[in-house]
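Example record for the data management plan.
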Amino acid sequence: MKNILAAIDFSDVAARVLEKAGELAKATGARVWVVHVVTDTSFISGAGEVPIPFTVTDEDLPRHFPSEQGKLTEAVTQLKEAGIDAEMLLVSGPAVDRLLAVAAQIRADLIVMGTHGHGALYKLLVGTISEGVLRRSGTPTLVVPSKPA
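Corresponding structural encoding:
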């Protein structure tokens, strides 16, 4: 195993996702790619009389989302301090599509992500990112539950 994609959303389960990805990376010598997807990057510029919508590009994400960039940096720093080769990616767009694109780009051998344990009605109406990745990915995917067993 060479590359593990750890998808995090900064929720309570994110720490468990990073822990599991780190364990697997240590055991296999893989690099962990810590990825966060910003799903809404549309802004309205109010500089003039007429508001102008604009979308932030991936290159500009750290500047427009410094909190997310800081949290990613912190996560990667913790992995590196534990002796794990780690990189971070802050990307934007539809979460499932972007995670699958990044997995292909880095040639991920494994995707590690969390689930929040929403109820059946939520899944019926909204679905989940984890479920979307599981259905569409050809890459093995480990889903870490929100609560320990």
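Summary line stored alongside the record: The beta strands are 3-7, 31-38, 42-45, 52-55, 86-92, 110-114, 141-144.
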